[in-house]
Amino acid sequence: MKSTVTTKEQLKERIKELTCLYEVSSIIVHADFDDIEDSLKAITFSLKKAFQYPDKTEISIIVDDLNVLSGTINNSSQSISSNIPVFNVSKGNVSAHFTGDNSLNHDFLIEEQALIDNISLKIGGLLERIEIKNNELLLKRQMEHADRLAVLGELTAGIAHELNTPLANILGYAELLASNFSENTTAHEDLNKIIQNAIFSREVVKKLMFFSCEMPQEMKRVNLVPNIKNAINLLDATFRKQQIKYIVKIEEEDLWLRADTVQLTQIIFNLTMNAIYFSPKDSLVVIEAFQTDSDIVLKIKDQGPGIPEHLQDKIFQPFFTTKPTGDGSGLGLSVVHGIVSSHKGSITAKNNNKKGAIFEVRLPK
Q1: Looking at the structure, do residues 151 and 189 belong to the same domain, yes or no?
Q2: Could you tell me if residue 201 is inside a domain?
Q3: What residue numbers bound the domain in which 24 lies?
Q4: What is the model's pTM?
Q5: What percent of the chain is helix, strand and coil (3-state, nearest 5)?
Q6: Has residue 1 been placed in a domain?
Q7: Most confident option among 44-58, 61-75, 131-145
Q8: How many whole angstroms separate alpha carbon 16 and alpha carbon 4?
Q9: Residue 315 located in a structural domain
Q10: SS (H, E, C) the chain
């Protein structure tokens, strides 16, 4: 039933609406970007007061998974609503619900529809500012990370070049001396220890050079499938020794891409060895490969402890490791990251929904 509204009452309603717009603008200006729920709650109560029958009206604001209500809403109640636009895409809505006697044919005022349209635009503007800020922070972190990696790349390249010559000399002279002693002597055993440690150090230098992209690349058309199978065959004994099961999930026989074969094998080995190291006995490692329209995708999943949230931004940094001293140099994942980057691909690491970690490498075809 429509009510006859006098000029005085109309003026009173317009003042309520203007007051609401002022309050909402103030709420939005002082909104906490990290937690907007309180701001949305304040908006719902301010908007509720602006309606003709505030004691019989409830406001709902839905933004993505967030649903803020001013009170209990009857699903059968009459309502008006307005979508919240964020960069021209609806991200939710603002609605007003009449919760009075359902037998009354209550019509909302035209001005009330205009009011929630206006409030929706304001909330949309707030969400756009939040999204822009989040994107700026993400871009800033990515740029800082790239800068750090660039500096570390130059540093490690210099270290690798400086160490190569003395290591070659140590290894060469140790092998020469070892040939002058019989295998039964203590001196021969000591020289063998020097040789083994020199070889280990040389491998670390190689990883440094991989990380800094100083190793020469021979890019050619490569089928990833036989590379995976060959690498897993070589690691089969390691899987059995550690009592870990594995599954290779490849539905296609041909997954072609342009890559350096040696570096491609390095990616598979390092990620698989990492999965083995963190996997408990009798667990399962899954090696999966497939293709999209533009990329070849390699996924390696384990059932280990996963990646602590506070370490997820650090795992690809050189010399960072959670392994005990002596178990790792902290270069394995950095090497993989460097190789993937040099191939213009991407690598991500995240926790599995159930348990363990998933490393995903995407390389362009």
Answers
A1: yes
A2: yes
A3: 7-137
A4: 0.47
A5: 50, 20, 30
A6: no
A7: 44-58
A8: 18
A9: yes
A10: CCCCCCHHHHHHHHHHHHHHHHHHHHHHHCCCCCCCHHHHHHHHHHHHHCCCCHHHEEEEEEECCEEEECCCCCCCCEEEEEEEEECCEEEEEEEEEECCCCCCCCCCCHHHHHHHHHHHHHHHHHHHHHHHHHHHHHHHHHHHHHHHHHHHHHHHHHHHHHHHHHHHHHHHHHHHHHCCCCCCCHHHHHHHHHHHHHHHHHHHHHHHHHHCCCCCCCEEEEEHHHHHHHHHHHHHHHHHHCCCEEEEEECCCCCEEEEEHHHHHHHHHHHHHHHHHHCCCCCEEEEEEEECCCEEEEEEECCCCCCCHHHCCCCCCCCCCCCCCCCCCCCHHHHHHHHHHHCCCEEEEEECCCCCEEEEEEEEC
At 363, the amino acid letter reads L
Single-letter residue type at 312? Q
At 335, list the tokens.
């090497």
Residue-wise pLDDT tens digits, 157-180:
667 667 777 888 888 888 888 888
